[in-house]
Amino acid sequence: MGMYGEVLGIGPFRRELVPFLQQPEAWHRNTRDGAIIVVSVFLAPEGSSRSRKLAGCMGAEAWDFNTHALDPWRVDVEAVRRFLYPGEEHRLECFLRLRDAGFEFFFQPNG
């Protein structure tokens, strides 16, 4: 089994962010503004090579835990765009919107 890499965003909920979250709007009906939420932004379940590539796009090293707290302003946006599969462009828009809203981002390796 290889690595499963993921980028998580953590930050304050705002109603205007709902279109960029994974859950349906109805699930956030009772979520108060300012509540801290965790959002899965990018996934690489295909294995170690792709997970390492995702980490690199984000400015991290897959197994260097010192690099897992990401600086969202230093992410290689064009590399992320190339990393995504067709039809996943919304994930990049989600990242950019959450970044602009002050979310923090973390690379998480599993496996």
Tell me the major beta sheet: 4 strands, antiparallel
Detail the poorly predicted runs: none
- Report how far apart the termini are: 7 Å
How would you classify the helix and strand content by structural class? alpha+beta
Strand percentage lies at 15-25%
Biggest β-sheet: strands ordered side by side in the sheet: 2-1-4-3
- What's the number of helices? 3
Shape annotation = globular
Helix and strand element order:
EEHEHHE
Which radius of gyration do the C-alpha atoms yield?
Answer: 14 Å
Total beta-strand segments: 4
Mean pLDDT: 95
Estimated helix fraction: 25-40%
Fold and architecture overview:
It is a single chain. The protein has helices at 48-58, 77-83, 89-100; strands at 4-12, 36-44, 69-70, 104-110. By secondary structure, the chain is α+β, with helices and mostly antiparallel strands. It has a domain at 78-110. Strands 2-1-4-3 form a 4-stranded antiparallel β-sheet, covered by helices on one side. Helix 1 runs antiparallel to helix 2 (77-83). The longest helix has 12 residues, at 89-100.
Question: What's the short version?
Answer:
By secondary structure, the protein is an alpha+beta fold. Helix content is 27%, strand content 24%.
How is the secondary structure organized here?
Layout: E1 4-12, E2 36-44, H1 48-58, E3 69-70, H2 77-83, H3 89-100, E4 104-110
Antiparallel strand pairs: 1-2, 1-4, 3-4
Keywords:
single chain, alpha+beta, four-stranded antiparallel sheet, 3 helices, 4 strands, globular
